[in-house]
Amino acid sequence: MANRTSRDAHTVKGTNPQYLIEKIIRTRIYDSIYWKEQCFG
Q1: How far is 13 from 30, CA to CA, in rounded Å?
Q2: Which family does the record claim for this protein (predicted)?
């Protein structure tokens, strides 16, 4: 499963948008059933 940012996404102040959310929250999102079934199903 790739949790990479889309190439079309805009940077926010030069930062990857997914890094605006803390790592622990991102990990919980990536491990959720919804993310695995709906986003990469």
Answers
A1: 24
A2: Belongs to the PRP38 family.
Q: Collect the ranges in the chain with pLDDT lower than 50.
A: none
DSSP 21: S
Compute how many other C-beta atoms are within 10 angstroms of the C-beta atom of residue 36: 12
Domain borders along the chain are 16-41
| CA separation for the pair 1, 4 (Å, rounded) | 9
Amino acid identity at 10: H
Mean pLDDT of the chain, nearest integer: 82
